[in-house]
């Protein structure tokens, strides 16, 4: 009787052990079979996201120069200009109510004040006083005297780009007079490229003068999406070619996006440089 009870106890223990082993095996199988192929992570908080951003790159993959046009109508964006973390060419129209104020604030902000030179377009869309544009009907002497007066009235200007000018920049005579004056004064010139028939580059080669050309207009369409797309286009050019020159305008949205993009891209190997340095680096007076 005792022997039977002992055998029965051993039998029960064996059954229990095997049952436990079976349970463990089944649980292990279920656990393995239910594991997702790709782990599902919780949304990353902004603070956590900042921690995993790559560090600023030491190597430069492209350089960009920026010109902002049409300053002088007001001085409302001078504060944004002062807070801009990158070099910017500030192209100021002459003889407007706030031209001198913007000239002063651009110098205070350490930017590059430029004359936004009104040149004759094929079609006039804006109303300015008579004689405001340099035109193809002017004599060489009139062009010289008008341009010299504009430059005297804006002391401290370091460079020039054209406001409109689709007609004047197609005229070799006009541009030879204009560029000759700028070369003598050691002022740089940026062709805004308002016509695909511009003769600025060949005239500059004839004068052995370094000038540059606009690659991208940022804000022909004044919307965030359009400006960001144009900015992306400029960055592609800078990455592929090594450099790009972009032109925007004195607008709050343009200035805001420019600041955002500058802070972002400076961590990705894009360097923003002054316009004068850009021309010195990338423009050959013999080409």
In helices, the fraction of residues equals: 40-55%
User: On the 0-100 scale, what is the average pLDDT?
Assistant: 85
- Beta-strand level of the residues, as a percent range? 15-25%
* Radius of gyration, CA atoms, in whole angstroms: 33 Å
**CATH fold naming:** TIM Barrel
Question: Which CATH top level class fits?
Answer: Alpha Beta
Poorly predicted tracts of residues? 1-10, 26-56
How many DSSP-defined strands? Answer: 9
Number of helices: 10
Main structural class: alpha/beta
Count up the domains.
1
Write out the CATH superfamily name: Glycoside hydrolase/deacetylase
Describe this entry's structure for a reader.
This protein has 287 residues and is an alpha/beta fold. It has one domain (62-282): Alpha-Beta Barrel (TIM Barrel). The chain is built from ten helices and nine strands. It has helices at 2-33, 46-51, 78-83, 99-108, 140-152, 172-184, 200-206, 224-241, 252-265, 275-282; strands at 62-71, 89-92, 112-119, 159-164, 188-191, 212-213, 216-217, 243-249, 270-272. Strands 1, 2, 3, 4, 5, 6, 7, 8 and 9 form a nine-stranded parallel sheet that branches. Strand 5, helix 7 (200-206) and strand 6 (212-213) form a beta-alpha-beta unit. Helix 5 (140-152) packs parallel to helix 6 (172-184) and helix 8 (224-241) packs parallel to helix 9 (252-265). The longest helix has 32 residues, at 2-33.
């Amino acid at each position: 009787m005792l022997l039977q009870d002992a055998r029965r106890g051993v039998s029960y223990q064996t059954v229990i052990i095997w049952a436990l082993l079976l349970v463990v095996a089944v649980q292990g199988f279920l656990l393995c079979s239910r594991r997702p192929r790709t782990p599902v992570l919780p949304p990353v908080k902004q603070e956590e996201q900042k921690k995993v951003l790559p560090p600023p790159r030491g190597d430069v993959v492209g350089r960009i120069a920026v010109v902002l046009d049409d300053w002088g109508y007001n001085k409302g964006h001078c504060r944004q200009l002062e807070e801009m973390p990158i070099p910017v060419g500030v192209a100021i129209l002459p003889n407007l109510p706030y031209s001198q104020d913007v000239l002063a604030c651009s110098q205070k902000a350490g930017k590059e004040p430029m004359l936004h030179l009104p040149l004759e377009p094929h079609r006039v869309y804006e109303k300015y006083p008579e004689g405001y544009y340099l035109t193809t009907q002017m004599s060489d002497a009139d062009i010289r005297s008008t341009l010299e007066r504009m430059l005297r009235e804006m002391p401290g200007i370091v460079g020039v780009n054209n406001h409109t000018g689709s007609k004047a920049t197609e005229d070799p005579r006009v541009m030879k007079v204009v560029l000759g004056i700028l070369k003598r004064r050691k002022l740089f010139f940026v062709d805004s490229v308002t016509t695909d028939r511009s003769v600025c580059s060949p005239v500059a080669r004839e004068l052995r003068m370094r000038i540059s050309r606009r690659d991208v207009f940022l804000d022909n369409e004044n919307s965030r999406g359009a400006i960001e797309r144009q900015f992306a286009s400029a960055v592609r050019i800078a990455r592929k070619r090594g450099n790009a020159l972009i032109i925007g305008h004195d607008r709050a949205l343009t200035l805001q996006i420019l600041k955002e993009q500058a802070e972002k891209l400076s961590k990705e190997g894009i360097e923003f440089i002054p316009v004068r340095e850009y021309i010195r680096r990338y423009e050959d007076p013999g080409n």
